[in-house]
Amino acid sequence: MIKYIGSKRLLVPLIVRTVAGLAGVGTVIDLFSGTARVGHALKRANYRVLANDHNAYAATLARCYVQADAADWLAEAARLVRELNALPGRYGYFTDTFCVRSRFFQPQNGERIDAIREAIARLALQPELEAIMLTSLMEAADRVDSTTGLQMAYLKEWSPRSYNDLSLRVPDLLPLSLHGKGRACGLDAFEAAAALEGDVAYVDPPYNQHSYLGNYHIWETLVRWDSPEVYGVACKRVDVRKRRSVFNSRPRFREAFTRLLGDIRAPVILVSFSNEGYITREEILTALRALWGGSARVETIERDYKRYVGAQIGIYNPQGERVGRAGHLRNKEYLFVASRPGYGPPVEQALQGACMGRAR
Asked: What is the domain count for the chain?
């Protein structure tokens, strides 16, 4: 899967074990699905996943990894990968914008991306198959980019991987879940919370100033294929300036987070958060305990992790020049588990099977 600042790669096993320890879970809602890493792991564990993200690239990843099933598309996807890998490159918008006006990719790879993306558009594929091919293209491009993992800037010197030839691979498609077919949505989080119903809701909102659209604007353009006007050295889409999430605003976060929790239609809510977020651990606990008339039961798991790869590498300006070091290289990740009164066995029993050393 693509490099991603909000990836829960290290936390995924704990999330899956926690869900597995809960009673009677068949359907899990993922309201901020991002790369769909969590949803993919839950589907692999045979849960039905309802994934949502308002960014087009993230909804596409979820349509591939959560909604599409291997039995339906694996053979056709393999055939298309072979055909698209054989296409010669062609100079187009992507090459001009992200290889000439900026330096995110080597021009020869940019031309391959242009050619493959145009071919996918011409084929007018069924939505699930199109999502599979777009995911394959995003991941192929991610393997040959010249960044520290974010698209806020590119490196001053070409990264070693950028010299590799872009090559598509078939994404890791999974079989249909025993609990039914998954679904990918591209809704606003509040709309999704009101529309989707499940046994567990997993909530991993943006919780600081970092805009996922701004950090991954190239994937948004690659999926939308709308040749937008751009601005700045990084050639960001102009709509990055307008499409701001309320969860990226410190003054608005607390109210938005509390409202979202109250709209969720599930008896158990899992919240993933960090000590780098806009509100504190205690404030999250207060919001969760207020659910269901103030009678929610809440447990917390705390883990210490390395910060995202960009923090390990350093701080770069828009020209890709290193200008500083991150203030700290580790952070605390929290997993909060809130359950409705009368829900099954005590949630703490599930957590005992998921981890050791639980923090209350």
From this structure: 1
Select from 207, 65, 75 the least CA-distant residue to 139. Answer: 65
- Summarised one tens digit per residue, pLDDT across range 124-174 is 999 999 999 999 999 999 999 999 999 999 999 999 999 999 999 999 999
In a domain, 360, yes or no: no
Residues in the chain: 360
Q: Which residue has 């991150």 as its token pair?
A: 326
> Band of the pLDDT at 357, cuts 50, 70, 90?
very low
pTM of the model: 0.89
C-alpha span between 300 and 346 (Å, rounded): 13
Residue 241 falls inside a structural domain: yes
User: In terms of residue numbers, what domain contains 159?
Assistant: 12-354
